[in-house]
What does this fold into?
Amino acid sequence: MDGPVDMISPSQADSERARLVELAMRAIGRTGENVTRTALATEARLPRARIDALFPSEDELFDAILEQWYAPAIAIMEEAVASDLPIRRKFYEFFARRFLRERARYREDPAAFAVYCEIGSDKIENVRGYIDLADHYLSELIAQAQEDGYFAGLGINRALSLINQMVACYTSPYMMLIIEERLAEDKLAAIIDTLFDGLRAEARGAAPVVGLRIA
Amino acid sequence: MDGPVDMISPSQADSERARLVELAMRAIGRTGENVTRTALATEARLPRARIDALFPSEDELFDAILEQWYAPAIAIMEEAVASDLPIRRKFYEFFARRFLRERARYREDPAAFAVYCEIGSDKIENVRGYIDLADHYLSELIAQAQEDGYFAGLGINRALSLINQMVACYTSPYMMLIIEERLAEDKLAAIIDTLFDGLRAEARGAAPVVGLRIA
It folds into this structure.
């Protein structure tokens, strides 16, 4: 009513933020480095004050980029957890759909993908929340699997760690950079089946018997 | 007898080469970049001609460094393959002993370890032979396991690829850099037991039925 003439509604601000995040992501892919608010202002041909009003700190800009980067993965995980697929199929969709999406991003622009990996690794504290969220959803799936009798005797965190390690080639952006040509959906499916039939707490002979270690 | 006075025997040349490779490796750790023959001459306080006589090209110096880097891993793999341990124990020793050695190198100097990773990735063609050699030894172990009835129905190359992917956290130097604190021998043993009891060709429900894919 009587606000400043350039006052914008929350939803307008959201859509402008989203547009600027898109611009920022394209700039990252093009320049090979993270984008500052100063660079984004130039990129968007907007006054710096406008950028600052939408992203009050560099960290808020980066977090907005991360949010946009991870949104599709979160949607995939939520759908897989909520689906009424049999448990092995849930696990497969949980990993495979994210893998296929990341692979598409990688193939579209391998250099930009590598830049994102590097930035993510520099800003690992900002990324941590997304890793924790993925662990949260996977823990839910593990609990569902254990109700069906799988992963017998393992605590959730132990099962989580072992499963994360066994599927790391399909979730780690670094592995995508190194061995993308060796990754395939049917191999991921074979790994999921292996987990379901082989993973439990009982030791079955791989570990050395204490005191009987070979030199 | 009547050769030049500075003529050295092949075994002297070998031990001087080994000493220079040690120096080169320390220089790489200290400077954070690969070492040229010029830099090595300065490092060793030797005439450049002497270095060139021992390493006729930059590539030969780099290959000598690689050879020294991988020698312990090769010895471990050969011992594991030749041992008369039960097959699960062989697999475990094959991976665990190399992992423990790499982890010791990593913990001794994480920054130098990271530099080696980067150089190795820049010179992947030189490294390829060692990766192929590890695949060769693992293929032997897989054949032994299949004689005992494990990994039923899988071709050697297929089993090799799946196993390499499932243990990648324990063989990839990149994963060491990222998640070293989450890697542990007892987890590796659990993964090996999982492989032995779960890995076979038969599809058991993880993969989508063709034409019935969820959106």
Remarks:
- The longest helix of chain A spans residues 58-82.
- The radius of gyration of chain A is 22 Å.
